[in-house]
Amino acid sequence: DKSLTSDLDPILKLQGIPWLLRKTILFTPLTIEITHTITTSTPKTPDTNPTQTIHFSAQSHTALKTAAANPPSDIRHFDGRFYTQRNFLFGRIECRNRYIVGSVSGEGCAAKGNGVGVRPNVELQSTGLSEGDAGIAIRFLRGQVEVDGVTPSPGFLVEGPVVLDVRLFEHGEGEGQGLWVHVFDRREGGGWSSEQIWGFEMIGGVRLYTRRAVVTDGKGVFKLARLVYRLVES
After folding, report:
1. What is the mean pLDDT of each run of 10 residues along the chain (234 residues)?
2. Organism's domain of life (predicted)?
3. What angle do CA 31, 98, 174 make, to 5 degrees?
4. 155-176 per-residue burial string, b: 16 or more CB within 10 A, e: under 16
5. Any idea where the domains of the chain sit in the sequence?
């Protein structure tokens, strides 16, 4: 929903996307089709358990018949390990994708009405920020502030995990309380990095899928953005 999504031009510019390509991306109506699969590995020894990995594929669809507007699927593996892949827009990037749970926060949030709730228990992976800026970034990712970095936010909804196998995600202090996606990308060889938390928020009384993003250039400059999607489940 572009009417609710932050202005993404500053973030794309920070990531080195040319002006014309940025305009193509920003002004084209977009639908994303999401699918996922789970694979189970074979135990290496009789006394070890098999491990499972979730694979996530997001395919963009637009009315424009151009490669820039319809890039190949973004495929991600949720096992908490770093790996390298080629991205249509950004070239070779290093990725790390994982599920995280919540930790109790003393600030009011959408989870409870008594001023004490649960926030995504995320540890900032981005580097190059001052202590103050890093604090703003992590508060935004946890849903404590809005995209201006100051205004208090009700934040993410705390919903039961859809993944029941605890080996598929990491535990925080609020073990079993909520489940979110933590995605970290960085340009291979240095430069920008992008860190996101995916979840659901109540916006205008409607439950919407959101991605809160922090993008840095590795030299102290950073931008915040929230992408908002209307989810159609099939």
Report:
1. 90 90 76 65 62 58 53 73 84 89 64 57 91 95 95 89 47 59 90 93 93 93 93 70
2. Eukaryota
3. 115
4. bbbbeebeeeeeebbeebebee
5. 2-28+95-229
Going by C-alpha positions, the residue among 211, 224, 202 that lies closest to residue 135 is 224
Looking up tokens 């580097």, which residue turns up?
Answer: 127
**The two structure tokens encoding residue 124:** 């900032």
pTM: predicted TM-score of the whole model, two decimal places:
0.79
* Residue 223 backbone phi and psi in degrees, to 5: -135, 145
In the chain, count H helices and then E strands: 3, 11
